[in-house]
Design goal:
By secondary structure, the chain is of the alpha+beta class. It has one domain. Helices cover 43% and strands 15% of the residues. A 3-stranded antiparallel sheet has the order 1-2-3. Strands 4-5 form a two-stranded antiparallel sheet. Strand 1 and strand 2 form a beta hairpin. The protein is elongated and about 80 Å long. It starts with 5 loop residues before the first helix and ends in a 13-residue tail after the last helix.
């Protein structure tokens, strides 16, 4: 029998709840394109994209460079004021996410203990 991943299940439930969070919806409304009510403006490239293709992004990453710390921090970073969100198109969101993941990877590497170089054996 496959082991149940409780952390993944809770995280997924929180993200589903976040999709209906009023502050998130207000951020989408605030980014509406005045010329086309079904479109929003990307905060990075300023392109007008259909609302369904836009990403509501947190200015501060939900999971910081140190990774998952605790549930309280995850929840406080996920459910923030509408001013802490930005609306991004798919390509800008992908670029920002790639940058954040690279920062996490570099942080994890910096936290690994350094291996000492092997010393050459002395010939006797």
């Amino acid at each position: 029998m496959k082991k149940y991943n409780l952390k993944a299940a809770i995280t997924s439930a929180l993200k589903r709840t976040w999709r209906n969070y009023p502050e998130r919806k207000q951020a989408l409304l605030a980014a509406r394109d005045p010329l086309n009510k079904k479109h929003v403006r990307c905060a990075m490239c300023f392109l007008s994209v259909h609302e369904k293709l836009a990403h509501v992004d947190h200015f501060q990453p939900v999971v910081g460079v140190a990774g998952f710390l605790n549930w309280d921090e995850l929840i406080s970073r996920l459910f923030v004021d509408k001013s802490q969100y930005q609306i991004l198109c798919e390509s800008c969101h992908s670029e920002k996410t790639r940058f954040e993941r690279e920062a996490q990877r570099m942080y994890r590497q910096s936290m690994k203990p350094k291996k000492e170089p092997k010393r050459a054996k002395k010939k006797t």
